[in-house]
């Protein structure tokens, strides 16, 4: 499943591919399409398909990024 980042120009950029789960905390490994796996630490959120997730933590493990995400729910207007 591809992972996307929406940059300043508001265009989705494919930045990696989810490869599997890590441990029991809900983290997962992402194969990075770029050269700098540590760049995930600079992101506030990422998209998987069309769903936005807040980045709770990001770390590197060998040549992979390990991410922990939180689903961002849309605001309800009353």
Helix and strand pattern: EEEEEE
* Percentage of β-strand residues: over 45%
Mean pLDDT over all positions:
84
Radius of gyration (CA) equals 13 Å
Roughly how many Å apart are the termini? 34 Å
Largest sheet: 6 strands, antiparallel, barrel
* Number of helical segments with 4 or more residues: 0
User: Structural class, please?
Assistant: mainly beta
- What shape does the CA trace take? globular
Query: Which parts are unreliable, with pLDDT below 50 for 5 consecutive residues or more?
Result: none
How many strands appear in the DSSP assignment? 6
Helical coverage, percent range: under 10%
Strand order of the largest sheet: 1-2-3-6-5-4
Annotate the secondary structure layout.
Layout: E1 2-6, E2 12-22, E3 27-32, E4 45-48, E5 51-61, E6 64-71
Antiparallel strand pairs: 1-2, 1-4, 2-3, 3-6, 4-5, 5-6
Give an overview of the whole structure:
This protein has no helices and six strands. It is an all-beta fold. The protein has a six-stranded antiparallel β-barrel with strand order 1-2-3-6-5-4. Strand 2 and strand 3 (27-32) form a beta hairpin.
């Amino acid at each position: 499943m591809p992972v996307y980042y929406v940059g300043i120009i508001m265009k989705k950029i494919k930045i990696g591919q989810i490869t599997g789960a890590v441990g029991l905390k809900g983290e997962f490994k992402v194969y990075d399409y770029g050269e700098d796996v540590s760049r995930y630490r600079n992101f506030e959120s990422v998209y998987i398909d069309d769903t936005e997730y807040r980045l709770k933590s990001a770390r590197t493990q060998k040549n992979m990024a390990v991410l922990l995400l939180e689903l961002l729910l849309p605001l309800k207007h009353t």
